[in-house]
Amino acid sequence: MDQEKTGALSGLRHFGLTDFQLYKEALAQVNRICWHQYFPYLYFRYGDLLISEIDGSVCLFYKQNRANRDPKLYLYFLPMPMNENVLKLCLERVRTFNNTKRAVIYRVDEQDIEKLEHLGTDVKTFPLEREYVYDPKNYHSLSGTKKHKIRQDVARIRGMDGVEVRAFEEGDVKGCIALMDEWAVIQQNKYEGRVAPRGFARRCVRNSTLFEKKDLFGLVVLIDGTIRSVGFAGEIRPGLANLFITYSDHRYYGLNRFLFYHLMLQLDTYELVNYAGASTPGLEFAKESLRPVLKHGSYRVHVIK
């Protein structure tokens, strides 16, 4: 790596567990809804995030290593809390590292787009996904026509013999990984190419005990003693939680809604729960049927000097 690129990384350090408290305190100062800001996701998903503190704002960068090409630097989020001068410094760092006039912000919440309009530069936005957001208190009662499908599926699974819902335990790792692998085999006929559990989901199952239960907890559903559904969730920031990972054996119709219902009961002290986006029509239908209170947009933003 040449001297200019090395200099552009000056003052940055690798993002890790020791940054948890700093990151959570910074996140509490903003009202972003994007699920990608969930610390366990960032920790389990990326090995190449960099962090710094500039004038009281926490700044997160993503250094993407690319095969047979130079690495590329992104500003992952807007500074926390938002500071326009700090943002300009971050964008200039990205331009210097990449040797280009274009700086890319990897994830921007839809309500933050307007904060970029005063930069005096060419700003281009590209939609990434619509995230499904729920009010967990809505599931205290399943009465009403809008919740008919959830109510029906919860009753169906409850009425089966040998059903047990309990907290995830370390001894469940092998059973959960087996479920995820079996899920992939069943699902692969629906989609082109190979379907596999995401790496960060596997790492979450294997390493969830790194976090306090408030920040990451798991539930499993057993049928006749075998794990048939697993989910993990936790706090993003005060008032907002993330329903992070859910896997269910689709041979048991309605099981994922049953799991969703129980996770929502565990998260009912939060105002909102973000359940991420939907990458397939089937997943979109499933998340719509759970009655979101809003669909939240996230964007990739190019800032051209």
List the helices and strands and how they pair.
Blueprint (H helix, E strand, L loop, with lengths): L2 H6 L4 E2 L5 H8 L11 H7 L3 E6 L2 E10 L2 E7 L8 H15 L3 E8 L12 E13 L13 H11 L4 E5 L5 H15 L11 H9 L9 E7 L2 E12 L2 E9 L6 H12 L5 E3 L6 H9 L4 E11 L1
Helix pairs in contact: 3-7, 5-8
Written account of the structure:
The structure is a single chain. The chain is elongated, with a radius of gyration of 21 Å. The longest helix has 15 residues, at 84-98. The protein contains 9 helices and 12 strands. It has 2 domains: 3-129 and 299-304, 3-Layer(aba) Sandwich (Aminopeptidase); 136-270, Aminopeptidase, CATH 3.40.630. The two termini are 24 Å apart. The protein has helices at 3-8, 20-27, 39-45, 84-98, 148-158, 173-187, 199-207, 255-266, 281-289; strands at residues 13-14, 49-54, 57-66, 69-75, 102-109, 122-134, 163-167, 217-223, 226-237, 240-248, 272-274, 294-304. The chain has 305 residues and is of the alpha+beta class. 30% of the residues lie in helices and 30% in strands. The strands form 2 sheets. It has an 8-stranded mixed sheet, sandwiched between helices. Helix 3 packs across helix 7 (199-207) and helix 5 (148-158) packs across helix 8. Pfam families: LPG_synthase_C. Residues 84-286 form the Phosphatidylglycerol lysyltransferase C-terminal domain. InterPro entries: Acyl_CoA_acyltransferase, LPG_synthase_C, UCP018688.
- Pattern of helices and strands: HEHHEEEHEEHEHHEEEHEHE
Strand-residue fraction?
25-35%
Number of domains: 2
CATH architecture of the largest domain: 3-Layer(aba) Sandwich
CATH H level, superfamily name of the largest domain: Gcn5-related N-acetyltransferase (GNAT)
Give the low-confidence spans. none
CATH topology of the largest domain: Aminopeptidase
Helix content: 25-40%
Mass-distribution shape: elongated
Largest beta sheet, briefly? 8 strands, mixed
State the secondary-structure class.
alpha+beta
Spatial order of the strands in the main sheet? 5-12-6-11-10-9-8-7
The N- and C-terminal alpha carbons lie at a distance of 24 Å
Mean pLDDT: 92
Radius of gyration: 21 Å
Number of E-type strands: 12
Count of alpha and pi helical runs = 9
InterPro entries: Acyl_CoA_acyltransferase, LPG_synthase_C, UCP018688
Domain Phosphatidylglycerol lysyltransferase C-terminal: 84-286
Organism: Desulfocapsa sulfexigens (strain DSM 10523 / SB164P1)
Pfam families: LPG_synthase_C
